[in-house]
């Protein structure tokens, strides 16, 4: 309860003070208006001239200050530029040192990245080269095996054909010679039986010969 009462008293005091301040400003405004109304024409003109003079002086001083400030800035710029050209400006040297340090760090980072990238490219190139060499060796070995296999098969086929040709030639050599106009018809073993009996084909041939001889 005591806290609430003290807070109300404080708020009440603030309202009372605000009201007094508002009344005081109102009274001052009314007094100033009363003084302005009580001024004569000459006093008004004199006050106006004073105010205009003060305004002109203030504007002139402002312009002069602006010109002087501009001149000072130009002089500072020329001096700063001269110091920079000579390399003696502390601010320039400090900024240049900071920029050089940042540039150095960035160059180191770029150099590290470049080295890592080149190492990666080198590893990839070596791996690709190794793969290509292995593939080349495998292809060469495969081609060599195929070449050897081809010639082995070719030699085997040649040997087989030689053997077949030898068998055929041997069979042909066992045959009797073919008849010619001046030779008699050969007697084949197949035409004679094991008991020396003439076969039908043989007897037929003999009959034909006998008939031809009798007809003569």
Automatic annotation (TrEMBL):
Extent of Basic and acidic residues compositional bias: 15-38
Annotated segments matching region Disordered: 1-42, 179-216
Protein name: Uncharacterized protein
């Amino acid at each position: 309860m005591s806290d609430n009462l003290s807070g109300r008293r404080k708020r009440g005091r603030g309202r009372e003070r605000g009201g007094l301040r508002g009344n005081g400003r109102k009274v001052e405004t009314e007094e100033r208006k009363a003084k302005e109304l009580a001024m004569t024409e000459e006093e008004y003109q004199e006050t106006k001239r004073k105010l205009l003079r003060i305004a002109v002086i203030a504007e002139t001083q402002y312009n002069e200050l602006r010109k002087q400030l501009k001149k000072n800035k130009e002089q500072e710029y020329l001096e700063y530029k001269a110091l920079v050209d000579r390399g003696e400006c502390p601010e320039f040297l400090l900024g240049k040192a900071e920029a050089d340090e940042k540039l150095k760090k960035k160059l180191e980072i770029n150099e590290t990245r470049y080295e890592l990238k080149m190492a990666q490219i080198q590893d990839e190139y070596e791996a690709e080269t190794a793969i290509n060499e292995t593939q080349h060796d495998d292809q060469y070995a495969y081609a060599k095996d195929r070449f050897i296999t081809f010639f082995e098969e070719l030699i085997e086929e040649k040997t087989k054909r030689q053997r077949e040709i030898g068998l055929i030639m041997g069979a042909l050599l066992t045959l009797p010679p073919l008849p010619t106009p001046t030779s008699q018809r050969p007697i084949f073993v197949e035409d004679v039986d094991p008991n020396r009996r003439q076969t039908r084909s043989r007897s037929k041939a003999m009959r034909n010969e006998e008939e031809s001889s009798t007809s003569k």
